[in-house]
Every structure is written in C-alpha cells, then in structure tokens.
C-alpha cells in the first residue's frame, strides 16, 4: 500500500523567503507523485507531477520539487514566496498498479506575511 | 483546456430533500471521480467511473448515488442526507484510470440542515 506524510501542518514564511514544504512517501513499487494547491473555497490545482522522467520537476508559479528515492522524499520548494502563495498544499501518491487510488497527505497550510 | 465544471456552486438542503450535483468535462477523459472534503482535511475518494462504468465505490452510504450518463457527465444524487454530510464535494477527471493527472472542478459546497 502507498502512503504520504506531510511534515508540518502549518508553515509560515515572510514574503520573499524560501518556501519548503516537506513530503515523504511510502511505496513498494515506483511511485507517481503530485503536488496540488487549494485556495479557499476552490478545487485542487495541479502544481507539478513526478513520473520518473526527471528527478527535478518544475511546476507552475515558480514551484519545483525534487524526487529523492534514497530519502523517499518529494519536497516542494519556491525560492521567493509571494503573498498569493498562501494556500493549502497537498502531496499525493499513486502507482501504475491496477486499482490504485490517488492517496493524499493531510495537507500543509502555507501562510505568507509581509 | 483542462476545465472541469461543477454545478451548483452552493447547495443547502434539508434531510428529507432529494438533490443532485452535476459535473462536466470536455477533455475526452474517460475516468471521473467524486471526492468529499471536510474543512482542513484532504479529499476523500467516494466513487470512480472508468469508461462510464462504476469502478471504485469506497463503501459510501447508499444515500449517495452516483450516475455517469455519458463520457462527459457525472452526477451525484443525494437523498436523506445527514448534517455530517455537509462538506465540499469535488469532481475530478483524468484521461484514464491510471497514473494520469486528475483535474479537479471547483467543487459544490453542500450544507445539510
């Protein structure tokens, strides 16, 4: 079975500071990993996806994530936070095994202060 | 275009009412999903349709009844709901039921009185 752990339910940064949101996964087969963002009262928007093509994945809005198999991690980063980045972020995992659903982490709330 | 639309945006219903949520996509996706999301929680999978056939039912109570009339449309029929069913209901679609990216709609905010 697959699982995802997001370390830190709430992360606070200042505008212009580095954003680091942590995600560790567990999977017995090669994983497919996703980061989604959710703004208040909205649906989930895909930030980026790892499919084994490249370990460093670039997404929208300046975000990127690096897949590290040795650490079973897929942390999300952005060099400089913007006020508009304040939202809920979900890491998710699935595999290509039949019947595997998309498993979400519990989410991390990102706050950005001026 | 990666848009999934959902109607209505908000819904308030009594416990004896019957209502339906609607989801539509025109991306040619053949897998469609219903999720339930409570405040400050991740989405919980309810149902999955693949090629218009129910593929996954995550032990959802029978007061929730899904329907997939065609490859672009997904409905969720609601009847005799409880106040604890109040939540954001999200629809998503993907090209196939596999590792393909799921694209989410904006959700329907449901309140059961």
Describe what this molecule looks like in 3D.
The complex is a heterodimer of chains A (114) and B (113). With 114 residues, chain A is an all-beta fold. In chain A, 0% of the residues lie in helices and 54% in strands. Chain A is built from no helices and 11 strands. Chain A has strands spanning 3-7, 10-14, 19-26, 32-38, 44-50, 56-58, 64-68, 73-78, 87-94, 103-104, 108-113. In chain A, strands 2, 4, 5, 9, 10 and 11 form a 6-stranded mixed beta sheet that branches. In chain A, strands 1-3-8-7-6 form a 5-stranded antiparallel beta sheet, with no helix packed on it. Chain A starts with a strand and ends with a strand. In chain B, strands 2, 4, 5, 6, 9, 10 and 11 form a 7-stranded mixed beta sheet that branches. Chain B has a 4-stranded antiparallel beta sheet with strand order 1-3-8-7, with no helix packed on it. Chain B is mostly beta strands and 113 residues long. The chains are: A mainly beta (114), B mainly beta (113). The A-B interface holds A 32, 34, 36, 41-46, 49, 51, 88, 90, 94-96, 99, 101-102, 104-107, 109 and B 4, 6, 40-43, 45, 48, 56, 88, 90, 92, 98-99, 101-107, 109.
């Amino acid at each position: 079975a697959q699982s995802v752990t997001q370390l830190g339910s709430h992360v606070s940064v200042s505008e212009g500071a580095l954003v680091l949101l942590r995600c560790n996964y567990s999977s017995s087969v090669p994983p497919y990993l996703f980061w989604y963002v959710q703004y208040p009262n909205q649906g989930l928007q895909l930030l980026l996806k790892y499919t084994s093509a490249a370990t460093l994945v670039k997404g929208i809005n300046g975000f990127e994530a690096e897949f590290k198999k040795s650490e079973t991690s897929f942390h999300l980063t952005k060099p400089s936070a913007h006020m508009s980045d304040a939202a809920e972020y979900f890491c998710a995992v699935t595999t290509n095994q039949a019947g595997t659903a998309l498993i979400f982490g519990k989410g991390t709330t990102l706050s950005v202060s001026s | 275009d990666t848009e999934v639309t959902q109607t209505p945006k908000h819904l308030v219903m009594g416990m004896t009412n019957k209502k339906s949520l609607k989801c539509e996509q025109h991306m040619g996706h053949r897998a469609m999903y219903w999720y339930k999301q409570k405040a400050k929680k991740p989405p919980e999978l309810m149902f999955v349709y693949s090629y218009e056939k129910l593929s996954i039912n995550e032990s959802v109570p029978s007061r929730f009844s899904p329907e997939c009339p065609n490859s672009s449309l997904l409905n969720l029929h609601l009847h005799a709901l409880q106040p604890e069913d109040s939540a954001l209901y999200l629809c998503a679609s993907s090209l196939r039921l596999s590792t393909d990216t799921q694209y989410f709609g904006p959700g329907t905010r449901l309140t059961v009185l």
